[in-house]
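Page 42, continued from yesterday. The earlier attempt failed because a stray header line got pasted into the input along with the sequence. Redoing it now with the clean sequence only.
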Amino acid sequence: MSWNFRIMKRKGEEEEEYYYTFVEAYYDKDGNVDGWTEEEVAPHWDSLEGLKDVVDQAFSYPVLDEEKILEAYNANTCLPDTEG
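This time it went through. Structure tokens are written below.
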């Protein structure tokens, strides 16, 4: 199983409130998102350049929309990988 840092859109406390955060996303053998950390994570690295690379990589992927992913999962369909 592989993983990387991704940006996730999550529902906030208020009705129409959303926020964005970093999560660790996990992938199945076919490269599909298969899970993610429940808690937000703070990417860290042993060098400033390494940290910049990790953050740049996270921004290079589509934003994961937690609400839509959970709806698809509960409907037993494939997981969407983009914000809509």
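Notes: The chain has one domain: 2-74.
Reminder to self: strip header lines before submitting.
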